[in-house]
């Protein structure tokens, strides 16, 4: 008898790489565990992601030696799973995708979001899903650049870059789970440097879309970023 398989509606999985050590913060702990308005940075990040209400689950990649993560109440949230982090950010993302191999479909969406971006809004997550859900490849939140950009050699300017075609990549970055896993696997096998998920797909000749994000979706990188994040989080 002819079997007609009903198409499955793709689900959304959150992937949160959180295995970095945050060297530029020069703090006593990785930046995702620094205090911010009475919680840790990563608790804000995950609470804001969960508020989007779109998830089949969220996988957090943490270092196996991480002493902070198991103590956070949110680590026991029913939608939150833990996978082992890797050497580079891309390895952490890859491990989280591998963790999902038995429960997710290759056609499901993976939305990768840095643990160190606590000011993500539920509305940005929902908006990017609405915008990208019928795209074959997917895309990323990004911001147009407003400063004039210089190419520099040593301490001297060698050129001014046309900024009209330059955008800053933010997260979440949203791709088909299977395609992203294979793109990261290939990039690792070829020794290619990928600092975000989009670059792994670009290496395969694909052209992810951009969705304009909010300027307050900053990544905690330097100590002064914490005060700015606190200011943004307190806005109504
Ligand atoms: O260091 P950077 O700010 O680029 O890190 C971005 C995100 O990737 C952070 O949330 C960090 O914890 C994560 N990361 C990771 N595994 C690594 C390095 C970074 O999950 N090996």
């Amino acid at each position: 008898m002819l079997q007609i398989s009903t198409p499955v509606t793709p689900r959304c999985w959150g992937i949160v790489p959180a295995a970095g050590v945050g060297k530029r913060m020069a703090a006593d702990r990785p930046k995702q565990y620094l205090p911010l308005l009475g919680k840790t940075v990563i608790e804000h990040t995950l609470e804001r992601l969960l508020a989007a209400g779109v998830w089949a689950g969220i996988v957090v990649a943490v270092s196996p030696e991480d002493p902070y993560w198991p103590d956070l109440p949110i680590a026991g949230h029913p939608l939150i799973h833990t996978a082992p982090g890797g050497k580079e950010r891309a390895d952490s993302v890859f491990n989280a995708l591998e963790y999902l191999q038995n429960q997710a479909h290759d056609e499901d969406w993976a939305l990768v979001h840095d643990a160190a971006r606590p000011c993500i809004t539920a509305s940005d997550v929902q908006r990017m899903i609405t915008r990208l859900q019928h795209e074959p490849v997917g895309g990323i939140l990004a911001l147009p650049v407003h400063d004039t950009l210089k190419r520099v050699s040593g301490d001297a300017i060698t050129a001014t870059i046309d900024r009209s075609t330059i955008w800053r990549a933010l997260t979440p970055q949203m791709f088909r789970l299977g395609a992203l896993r294979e793109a990261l696997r290939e990039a690792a096998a070829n020794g290619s440097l990928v600092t975000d998920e989009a670059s792994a797909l670009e290496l395969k000749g694909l052209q992810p879309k951009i969705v304009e994000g909010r300027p307050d979706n900053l990544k905690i990188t330097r100590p002064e970023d914490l005060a700015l994040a606190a200011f943004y989080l307190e806005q109504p």
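Residues 12-231 form a domain with the Spore Coat Polysaccharide Biosynthesis Protein SpsA; Chain A fold (CATH 3.90.550.10). The radius of gyration is 18 Å.
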